[in-house]
Amino acid sequence: MQSPAQLAVFVMTHLQTNSNDKPETLCARAAQHSQRIALIAENKSTSYAELIKLSSIVAQQLLSILNTEDLGESRVAYLVPPGLDHVVIQWGIWKAGGVAVPLAVSHPPAELSHTLEDSDPSFVIVNSLYEEKIQEATDGDLLVIDSSELVDGNFNLDPNNPELPSINPERRAMMIYTSGTTGKPKGAVVTHAILVAQITSLAEAWGWEKNDQIILVLPLHHIHGIVNVLCCALWTGASCQILPNFDPVDTWNRLSKGDLTLFMAVPTIYMLLIKTWESAKPRNRSRWSQGASTLRLMVSGSAALPKTALERWKTITGQVLLERYGMTEIGMALSNPLHGERRPGYVGTPLPRVRVRRVDENGEELGHSTQEGELEVAGPNVFLEYWRNPKMTEDSFRNGWFRTGDMATVDKGDYRLLGRTSVDIIKTGGFKVSALEIEEVLRQHQLVSDCAVVGIPDEDWGELVAVAIVKESSGEIELNNMITWAKKYLASYKTPREFRFVTKLPRNAMGKIQKEQVKLLFLDSSET
Ligand code: AMP
User: Fold this and answer.
1) Ligand 1 centroid to 72 CA: how many Å?
2) Quick check: CB of 178 below 6 Å from ligand 1?
3) Fold of the domain spanning 323-421
4) For 137-198, where are the E strands, in sequence order?
5) Which pTM was predicted?
6) Is the CB of 74 under 6 A from ligand 1?
7) Alpha-carbon distance 8 to 318, whole Å?
8) Which one, 296, 367, 389, 420, has least CB within 10 Å?
9) CB 397 within 8 A of CB 4
């Protein structure tokens, strides 16, 4: 009997091959685009041909460091800011037969230390900016290689005749550590074939083409930036301009040039762009709005997009954001359409070749019922395994379907997310309540800038609905008025009973609200 992961690879292989050849890997395909511009970073353009050459040199060096002809799926961790070196190193690892383990530049040494211990790499490649951090994280126990020496080093190797291993697409390619809202982050492993399945599904659904131009403002340790932006662009032969980090004014100025075709970001980024636009001079506002209106597609995902942000963005730019749903373990699963109606609050329908279903608490498929259920996903896009954790891998599948832990309903074929079973589905007084639904309502209040709803343990109710609110600076919220207002839109059992006012919500490097930390605001009463 085949495991779900083996089945996925089998399906993938049959989708992507003809009788003569194997499915391509991302790096192998790049030769088709050789003279086109692949990357723009640090004011320099790099062609696909150059990217191929530079990454081959890196691959050769990695092999010579370990004195081997094939890294044989050894893990290679790298802590390198987004830019040309980052991509060259990622491709170099792949071409040498290694498994790429991207580290988050925003993580403190303690978190890096967990990722390094767990992934057990042969060495770690570090940009000098982060050398101290990595020394603290590794305690000097790991071979550390300077990234600029690796990329710029004057090595006596022949880039035109690289002796590099042939990479079977079914080999492991990458481990991305998941955000880990509960427990420690886990390494989600994908093969080259799974990566290609994730890319090609998106490339088809969103109509990626050679002439597309995108900017990357997302970090490169997370699936959103790696797959949806960078890999999709490089698969298609498009150009990706990498900004060193996200800055709202720089991003607006870049969007306003009018040459970009695509933009992808998390809701927090869109919200920051909106705030920056609102406090800008009228002349800048109109230039920015005009530039952004010319893109062919703007996408939001990785967390729920508040309807208020969707509407405001439309007013400012004329663009209706395309919201999609995905996860490190499955790539992208659901998306609003490229052409056609994008319903606010919905994440659309399954992407090409991705199978999605909802099940009840007993794992029974819900079919056409509108009842809420947990999303399960299958297809060639689904990850291979949690690294060195067969038990957790096995537990995360049910009859070949990956259990996402996300709850959803369906209306006329479109999925609507209700949140994660573990943190966003609150059980209060016997009712199941979606934190996301309550947040949507509270954000409509004119004095609420942002909010996060959680369930906190309570003897009488099981869980109590509680909310942390960031106020608009313009006024004071009177609690009784707020509750009366909320009850106009929410059933009584959904209306929050506990409130905390905070200056900002705890978020991770991807801008996702850390609900476990929000809960602590209520459990530790000194922090009111
Ligand atoms: P990550 O693996 O870090 O990408 O996180 C995946 C999780 O983000 C999913 O399991 C969802 O809980 C959440 N998520 C992703 N996209 C959306 C979306 N469009 N709306 C709501 N939640 C989302």
Assistant:
1) 32
2) yes
3) Luciferase; domain 3 (2.30.38)
4) 144-146, 172-177, 187-191
5) 0.87
6) no
7) 39
8) 367
9) yes
